[in-house]
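[job 4471] stage=fold_predict status=RUNNING
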Amino acid sequence: MTDYETLLVERRPDGIAIVTINRPDRANAMTSTMFDEFAALATEVGNDPTVRVIILTGAGKFFCAGYDLAAAGDFTELSAIGFLDLQERGARGLAAIRAIRVPVIAAVNGAAAGGGMALALAADIRIGAPAARFNAAFSRIGLSAGDLGTSWLLPRLVGPARAAEICFTGRMVDATEAERIGLLNSVSVEGALLDDAVAMASLIVANSPAGVRISKSALRFNAEISSYAAAMELENRGQALATRTEDMPEALAAFAEKRPAKFTGN
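[job 4471] inference complete, writing structure tokens
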């Protein structure tokens, strides 16, 4: 098991893994090491057959305050290629989170700013505490909101016009607004965020592992194509694959016998 420097990983016996970004003294801000550890996490935990859902949250009062500018030194001293290398390192880390085969729930406990907002967007489901808030503050520091997938993911969640407003102004979006516009699935009452995330994860774990995994693939890949016909072709193959698993006949038998299904994912 990897000994992470910036993340805490708790594997629970119920198939839920809780991953905590663990730099509370720096508002859980990102570093190059964290980007590398996101990629390592995706490989190690994402491929663990005992892990069925991942909950991603932050230690302390923040979810993630974006890239740690203090840890980066002076960006202006980097060559264009040097900065591109750094940018691509971050992109690989967040792309790895988005590509994890099991569902990822972001339990947004506080501010998710810049790259932290991009990280929340990379999850499949977002639940927020009352203190959750988001901003795409890139333009406020002379950068583009086209960063770490934000310009692709945000419009698909909240619509292009609202995404433009959020990105161009750099304003803060609080938890209430985030839920209203679809940036958050729900807002928990004070102190209940992690319990609510675990409850959501438990609902997912109760289902067929193969069915959930194939569903995630269909939702993720079909978001990137423009053809209805091509989407159905991918769905057809996913359904055919699902019927070859042990879970489908078990589900049918459980229904006929009026008992809970015992899924294995095989």
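[job 4471] summary: The radius of gyration is 19 Å.
[job 4471] exit 0
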